[in-house]
Amino acid sequence: MNGLDFQIEPIVDLALAEDLGQSDITTKALIPDEQQGVGSIVVKGKGILAGVQIAKKVFLRVDPCLKVDIYFQDGAELESGTIIAKVEGKAASILKAERVALNFLQRLSGIASETNRYVKAAKGLPVQIMDTRKTAPGLRLLEKYAVKIGGGENHRMNLGDGILVKDNHLAALRSRGLSMKEIITRVKQNSPRRFKIEVEAKSVEEAREAVDGGADIVMLDNMSLDEMRQAVKAIDGRALIEASGGITLDRVRAIAETGVDFISVGALTHSVKALDLSLELVGPE
Q: What is the pLDDT of residue 2?
């Protein structure tokens, strides 16, 4: 993530400021400044590692003199009990950085792990598992990075990153009497030409209208499996197709088998279960 350092450092600084407040008064009251320690970061469940370099940045931001040894890189498949890194130096510094470093590691590894489960569930089928913009405020860059580590792909990073005509856009313009074709024509005329036009459809008929109107990608929103199959047949290769809304792990393969090209899953980021990790501190070795 070296090329993204200038974007990551403010996120790390904000997280540290949020957690440390004025100071770590417990550590200050108990731990002598000269006391040394070694902290081992241990995995307590199976999963995919993501965010280890960010955790390292946290420790070094608190104390540049800390020594951080990383044993596994992002993308590694981990078993419970695995030590992924060790931190050596002032015990007080390790304690100050501990929670923030683990917060990043746990959340990002949880996202990578969940993404990987979806990717494996659809393995062998010509479909891409994608994320959404349903990310924690301020953490989108990191969370979408974790999706990539888990084997998924990124949808739009932000609203300026692609054109997606959603149901509320359609409702606002239909209230003014515009048809689907007129809406798509308007967005093509008024947007940068390098972008493909994606349109959300809530029914098979809307999907047909969208592709007939010139959409490059049609998003099938909250459709049943039978409706998706009908929409894929109606579109008949004239546009790429994305399935979205209500996607769960137990039905993702069946959705992939309908013939869609992409499956976007908000749960990868908005409902992630953190990978259980802890830091165990002992005296110097």
A: 59
Domain count along the chain: 2
The answer on 265 and 151 residing in a single domain is yes
- Is 134 a residue of the active site? yes
For residue 283, pLDDT over 90 is answered with: no
On whether the CB atoms of residues 158 and 141 are closer than 8 A, the answer is no
Judged against a pLDDT cut of 80, whether residue 6 lies above it is answered with no
pLDDT at residue 96 is higher than 90:
yes
Element (H, E) at 24: none
SS3 90: strand
Res. 104 pLDDT band, cuts 50 70 90: very high
- DSSP per residue over 256-282, as a string? HTTT-SEEE-THHHHTPPPPPEEEEEE
Which of 99, 148, 202, 238 does the annotation list as catalytic?
99
CATH code, 36: 3.90.1170.20
CA 54 to chain centre: 15
- Whether 99 sits among the annotated catalytic residues: the reply is yes
Q: For this structure, is 221 an active site residue?
A: yes
212: annotated active-site residue: no
pLDDT of residue 193: 82
> Are 212 and 131 members of one domain?
yes
Q: 103 and 196: one domain?
A: no
Provide the domain limits for residue 139: 122-270
